[in-house]
Design goal:
Porin, 8-stranded antiparallel barrel, mainly beta, elongated
Length: 195
Amino acid sequence: MRTTYSVLLLTCLCACATHGGRHGSARPALTGFLPAAPAEVEPDRAFEKGNAPSDTMLAAGFGFTTSPSSFMLASTLDFPLDTNVTAGPSVQYGADDDISIVSITGQLKYFLPLTELWTLSIRPYVTGGIGVATIDKENRGSDSGMLVNIGAGVRYLTGENYRIGSEVRLNIMPDDVAGEPTYMSFDLLQITFEF
């Protein structure tokens, strides 16, 4: 099978390198057509484009949690799946004097399609995920369990490769981890890098 592909590739290269019906020098040369430059998107058609980032993005931020209360650091990696959908891992770590919370989830984000309600530089989305949460109260030993979350956020395009944003999630723990059935997490400021 590999030999067949090699022969086809070599045949195509030879066909491109030769000139038919030309007199004079018989030097081979590569010829072809360059694709036309993309035309600027008309304003009406700009709203039909997807709203998700087209490259992998790393978001890092800080905020807080409520019930139980803590200062929170968070990070998410977004891999584009579609023009409006990204997926990737997310880690949140909350700490206070007598409590620590760690959650690791797989997050799915759906970026709302562009409309006239917001400009091209604002990217709102809804998110949902599933994973594991660990809560340690007063250093008495940690308790772990399943975590499911839903939330929403927004990102603002501040540069070609950088964005800032904010996100809120309702975290539901069906097994009442450390006696807590739910907690809210507020990622007040996210800085997002595209690579």
